[in-house]
Specification:
145 residues, two-stranded antiparallel ribbon, 67% helix, globular
């Protein structure tokens, strides 16, 4: 898989900031964006399959913006993309997936109810966040050698 140009890191960062702002803005002012959506599966009042329904789209909007932003940052090239950086990327990815899996196993065992649902939602971006932290440390470590 080839990486996207380096300039997308800035766009990704902007999307993450916008997502964070919108999340707190929608929550603070209790704003709801009721829009029609196509649902493969819906179980609010009753269970339905393959239906159009109106729903509050604020959570989905902020999560999609954050996801797109993190993906742009993670999959953007570095200034000097080398074989060594590719190896650091690979090792960081493996570590991030492992740590995130432990995090999810902990959540499955010890968090219940709506807190668990919140952990599942956070899991959408947590692997990217963990990867970026590990990659930053590993890249610095490799540059010192």
């Amino acid at each position: 898989m080839s990486l996207i140009p380096r300039q997308f890191k800035w766009l990704g960062l902007i999307l993450i900031v916008i997502a964070g702002f919108l999340y707190f803005y929608f929550d603070w002012y209790n704003i709801r964006l009721e829009v029609p959506v196509f649902a493969v599966y819906s179980s609010f009042m009753r269970t339905r399959y393959f239906v159009f329904s109106r729903t509050n789209f604020t959570d989905e909007l902020t999560l999609l913006l954050a996801l797109a932003g993190f993906m742009m940052i993670v999959f953007s090239k570095e200034k000097n993309e080398s074989d060594e950086i590719k190896l650091v990327r690979y090792k960081s990815f493996v570590q991030a997936v492992f740590i995130n899996s432990l995090f999810m196993a902990f959540s499955i065992l010890f968090i219940y109810g709506s807190g668990f649902i919140a952990m599942l939602v956070f899991n959408v971006i947590s692997v990217y966040l963990i990867y970026l932290i590990i990659f930053a440390f590993q890249r610095r470590k490799s540059q010192r050698k």
